[in-house]
């Protein structure tokens, strides 16, 4: 009996090693199937617009919202060739002080570029957007100030902050509007390409 017992114990480690090898092969096979499926599915999802953005069904993300399609927007280097007196930035949600509390409200910011520096101003518009956002977060507008958003002191403060961020002389005016304001049709193209 001892001989039979030895034979059965001698086989166990060898069987356990085979099981590990089989499990490893199965794991590699499963990984290969998953990666293969991903490689075949990724181009189909990219071509069909699938992936959860823009409503799916093959539509582009631009057609789902108000954003322009990237293929129809001119490059920023063409800012001199389009009409429009101002660049309307994306809507900002900024704090508004009421007594000792603050709440966030939507603001529309329009920048008027210097006529001779429109291309550089177009390139620097995202940095100007950030400069306005930082300035109005550091020193928020109050409820009383909202009635006077066109005040000269506020415009000067914002233009000075923009000048320190992007350089002087790129923008001649900044307009701050309460709420979400639609861009005028003549400034639409310039606004889209400079955001």
TrEMBL record:
Q: List all Basic and acidic residues biased stretches.
A: 1-18, 66-79
Gly residues composition-biased segments: 49-58
Q: Where is this region: Disordered?
A: 1-20, 49-79
Q: Report which superkingdom the organism of origin falls in.
A: Bacteria
**Can you name this protein?**
Uncharacterized protein
Identify the species of origin.
Answer: Roseospira visakhapatnamensis
């Amino acid at each position: 009996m001892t001989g039979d017992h030895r034979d059965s114990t001698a086989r166990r480690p060898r069987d356990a090693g085979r099981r590990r090898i089989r499990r490893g092969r199965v794991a590699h096979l499963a990984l290969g199937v998953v990666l293969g499926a991903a490689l075949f599915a990724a181009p189909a999802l990219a071509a069909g617009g699938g992936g959860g953005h823009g409503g799916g069904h093959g539509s582009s993300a631009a057609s789902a919202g108000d954003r322009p399609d990237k293929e129809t927007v001119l490059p920023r280097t063409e800012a001199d060739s389009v009409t429009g007196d101002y660049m309307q930035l994306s809507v900002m949600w900024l704090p508004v002080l009421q007594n000792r509390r603050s709440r966030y409200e939507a603001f529309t910011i329009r920048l008027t570029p210097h006529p001779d520096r429109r291309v550089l101003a177009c390139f620097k518009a995202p940095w100007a957007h950030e400069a306005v956002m930082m300035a109005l977060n550091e020193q928020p507008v109050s409820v009383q100030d909202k009635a006077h958003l066109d005040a000269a002191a506020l415009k000067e403060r914002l233009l000075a902050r923009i000048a320190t961020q992007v350089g002087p002389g790129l923008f001649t005016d900044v307009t701050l509007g309460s709420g979400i304001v639609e861009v005028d049709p003549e400034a639409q193209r310039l606004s889209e390409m400079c955001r």
